[in-house]
Structure formats: structure tokens, C-alpha cells
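Postdoc handover notes: sequence design on the structure in folder B. Input C-alpha cells:
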């Protein structure tokens, strides 16, 4: 698999896992225009690669992501020309978050240091979130005179309306353990070794699941609450039937009967 060459991201592939590191350490990996664009492109790349079963996102130099790049915001505010560049810039965040959320691959976020603003949003779209206990989470936008415009819907979907409202209007700051209590992250680990061990365990669990079944399951769950239930259940039944007859379904059933690992888990 030929990996793309990005300006703000470093990529590595290993046994069905694509590791993406946000790599602007001088800005605590704050998202500039280039990073938002490249993360959006990364979602498409991961979605198109059948070999990619998990996408791990983390940040360089001990920070996940400190939010949006304030310097970029200032430049856009001063930009001349037609249209609304500030709205276009902001909307790009939502496009990126949606694209990553909808990838076929399981998205795993490893959260250390600053997890603020846009980084908070990235945590909210992950399928599995693993935090260091000393990670610093927050929605600082309102303290800058801005709303967390594109992030807010994903925060509500992740932790529920009442907690999201509290964090939104208080500019909430909290650590990894509070993030776990809120349901923002699934695991909170006490040190780097435990964080690495939890990531290895999670990736092992993902590798034991059938890739296409995982992708279908994720897509079905993302539709819940956005569509009428009965048509969704009808569609789910059709997909179940297709999976039963698929090579993946046949292999999974055979492996169970023969008391062995299926081919995708070996």
C-alpha cells in the first residue's frame, strides 16, 4: 500500500492498521487549513483501502491537538474577496469530522496532552478513545468569543445534550478521568506504558472482527436517530442476509464450527 505524503501528518501502516500522527508540534498540533484538508483526504484514503481495518490518530510530542490554529483564523478574518471565507474555513472542520466518522475502518483516538476544540471534536468521532489520565480536555472557543460551531453536534452525539450544554457555556476543562466518566473516552490510562498496552489490546480486538461486518455495523449505528426505525431495520435485514451468503460470512461460520480462528484474525 502506497501511503500519501502529507505536510502536517505522518503515516505508517502495520498489519491492517494505519497510524496517523498530527505533526505540528510547535503549535501543539493545532489544526491549520492544511491539516484539516489532509485529514479529510486521509478519511477518503482509508475508506478506499480494503487492507486498512483500523485508523489510529494521535498527536506528536505529547499533545493530541490544541484546537484550531488561531493564526489561520486571523488571516482568514483579514482576507479580502468574495464569499464568506470564515464560514468556508469553519465548515471545513465539519466536513473533516464527518468524513473521518464515516470511514469503513475503525477509528481509534489516542489522547494525550492538549485535547482542545477541534481535537475535542476528533475525540468525539472516534470509535474507540483511549486517554492518558493527565490529558487536558476542553472547549475553549467561547472564551475566544467564538462558538464551537462544527464541533457542537458531535459533542452532543457523544456525551448527550445536558453535559454538552454545560461544557459549552462553561468552556469546560477537565482531565482524562473526567472524560471517561462523561463517556467521551472509553479508557483512561495512568501512564504511557498502560496507554500503549490498551492500544495494542484494542487493535487486537478489532483484528478479530470481520472487516466488512465491522464496516456495516458502524454504518448502521451511525444511521440510528437520523432515519425512521422500520426502514432502517428492513435495510439491516437485507445487509445481514448479504453477509450470511458472503465469503466473509461463510468463513466466519466455518471457523466457528471447526474451532479455529477465521482467516482475517490469523
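Designed sequence:
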Amino acid at each position: 500500500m502506497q501511503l500519501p505524503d502529507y505536510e502536517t501528518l505522518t503515516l505508517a501502516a502495520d498489519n491492517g492498521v494505519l497510524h496517523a500522527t498530527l505533526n505540528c508540534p510547535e503549535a501543539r498540533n493545532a489544526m491549520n487549513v492544511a491539516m484539516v484538508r489532509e485529514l479529510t483526504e486521509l478519511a477518503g484514503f482509508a475508506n478506499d483501502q480494503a487492507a486498512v481495518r483500523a485508523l489510529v490518530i494521535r498527536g506528536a510530542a505529547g499533545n493530541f491537538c490544541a484546537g484550531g490554529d488561531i493564526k489561520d483564523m486571523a488571516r482568514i478574518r483579514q482576507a479580502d474577496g468574495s464569499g464568506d471565507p470564515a464560514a468556508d474555513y469553519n465548515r471545513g472542520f465539519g466536513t473533516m469530522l464527518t468524513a473521518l466518522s464515516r470511514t469503513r475502518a475503525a477509528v481509534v483516538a489516542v489522547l494525550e496532552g492538549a485535547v482542545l476544540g477541534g481535537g475535542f471534536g476528533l475525540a468525539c468521532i472516534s470509535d474507540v478513545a483511549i486517554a492518558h489520565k493527565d490529558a487536558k480536555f476542553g472547549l475553549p472557543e467561547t472564551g475566544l468569543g467564538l462558538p464551537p460551531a462544527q464541533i457542537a453536534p458531535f459533542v452532543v452525539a457523544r456525551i448527550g445534550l445536558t453535559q454538552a450544554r454545560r461544557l459549552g457555556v462553561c468552556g469546560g476543562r477537565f482531565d482524562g478521568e473526567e472524560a471517561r466518566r462523561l463517556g467521551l473516552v472509553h479508557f483512561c490510562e495512568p501512564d504511557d506504558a498502560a496507554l500503549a498496552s490498551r492500544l495494542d489490546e484494542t487493535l487486537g480486538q478489532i483484528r478479530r472482527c470481520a472487516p466488512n461486518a465491522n464496516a456495516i455495523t458502524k454504518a448502521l449505528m451511525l444511521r440510528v436517530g437520523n432515519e425512521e426505525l422500520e426502514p432502517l431495520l428492513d435495510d439491516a435485514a437485507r445487509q445481514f442476509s448479504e453477509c450470511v451468503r458472503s465469503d466473509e460470512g461463510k468463513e466466519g461460520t466455518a471457523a466457528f464450527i471447526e474451532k479455529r480462528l477465521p482467516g482475517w484474525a490469523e
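Context for whoever picks this up: The longest strand covers residues 9-14. Don't rerun without checking with the PI first.
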